[in-house]
Specification:
By secondary structure, the protein is α/β, with parallel strands linked by helices. It has a single domain, classed as Beta Barrel (Barwin-like endoglucanases). Helix content is 20%, strand content 17%. Strands 1-5-2-4-3-6 form a 6-stranded mixed beta barrel. The chain is globular. The chain starts with 7 loop residues before the first helix and ends with a helix. Bound molecules: 2-acetamido-2-deoxy-beta-D-glucopyranose (5 copies). The site of one 2-acetamido-2-deoxy-beta-D-glucopyranose has 6 residues, from strand 6. Keywords: Membrane, Signal, Transmembrane, Transmembrane helix. This is Expansin-like EG45 domain-containing protein. InterPro entries: Expansin/allergen_DPBB_dom, RlpA-like_sf. It comes from Gymnopus androsaceus JB14.
Length: 259
């Protein structure tokens, strides 16, 4: 009864807040990047046959893959516009070491983006449209390494000078390329999305181009804003997301009913 007594002006105000809040939650502050440029490269552990955020087949892990920093990836959970894209990454120099090191050789690797590197307040996946990471770049590729598909000698080392062999972070150049240059291209089982999950939660094109045929943003689609307060895990389990949307949908319908 109390709800029915609320003034029409107040109802309008609440509706305005709801609509405006929705717009705020779904506006996309994603980073747009050129097809060639500079970035940082880190590495992380991805178990063999693991199905990561994009929902690319587990077999994709038998070839070089990488996670892309969240605001360039284009979603804060599940698939995003970067999913399935292939990049040629070339190691240039280290810069956290003292002094920076410029190896004589500049090895390159072609990776497919299969995973999300979550936005955090520090670390190398923290670039947003308002500023780069501490390497001065807006993109970080997090290479799945070690990997059965990448030589253990892939990263140049200079242990006699620095006293350690893993520099952790590299300054690199990247180029968006066609996936037919990716090592997994001739293995149909390594291409595309997992078949046993609903098309709703996966998107991993075999060969996305620069404009069309790419994945939409799962976050934009579901009104999930990037969360800079946590960097836990690579994705929220689907049942949890479903419960959340069910709860908000229920609350919304109750609200509409009473208004
Ligand atoms: C990747 O980049 C290197 C230069 O760093 C180049 O030599 C190589 O041809 C490129 N590979 C592809 C597939 O574009
Ligand atoms: C090792 O690093 C030092 C310092 O950057 C450099 O002077 C030296 O040439 C490097 N050695 C090799 C083999 O690249
Ligand atoms: C990312 O973290 C570094 C420190 O690690 C900081 O200097 C930089 O401003 C941060 N970038 C953003 C966009 O917050
Ligand atoms: C990365 O390499 C580019 C091209 O050589 C250079 O302009 C830039 O300063 C380098 N960044 C770092 C952090 O070393
Ligand atoms: C994206 O565009 C660049 C420049 O137009 C082109 O060189 C590159 O091959 C394109 N990548 C793909 C995957 O089509």
């Amino acid at each position: 009864m109390a709800l029915l007594a609320i003034s029409p002006l107040f109802k309008l105000w609440v509706i305005f807040l709801l609509l405006f809040g929705q717009v705020l939650a779904t506006s996309s502050p994603w980073i747009q990047y050129p097809s060639f440029g500079y970035a940082t490269l880190t590495h992380y552990s991805l178990p063999l046959d693991f199905v990561a955020s994009c929902g690319c087949t587990g077999e994709s892990t038998h070839y070089p893959t990488a996670a892309l920093s969240q605001m360039a990836y284009g979603s804060s959970t599940a698939y995003g516009p970067a999913c399935g894209k292939c990049f040629n990454l070339t190691l240039l120099n280290t810069f956290l070491s003292t002094p920076p090191w410029y190896p004589a050789e500049n090895p390159n690797i072609v990776v497919k983006v299969t995973d999300l590197c979550p936005l955090s307040t520090a670390g190398f996946c923290n670039a947003t449209t308002s500023g780069p990471n501490s390497g001065g770049h807006y993109l970080n590729f997090d290479l799945a390494y070690p990997s059965t598909s990448i030589s253990n000698n892939f990263f140049p080392t200079n242990e006699s000078y620095y006293g350690y062999s893993d520099f952790g972070v590299w300054n690199i150049s990247y180029e968006s390329i066609d996936c037919n240059d990716w090592e997994g291209w001739n293995n149909a089982g390594a291409l595309g999305s997992v078949a046993d999950q609903s098309a709703e939660s996966v998107c991993c094109p075999a060969s996305p181009d620069n404009s069309s045929n790419t994945c939409p943003s799962y976050s934009d689609h579901n009104g999930i804003a990037p969360d800079t307060t946590t960097s836990a895990g690579h994705s929220i389990p689907r049942p949890y997301i479903f419960t959340l949307s069910l709860v908000s949908a229920t609350l919304l319908s109750l609200f509409v009913y009473f208004v």
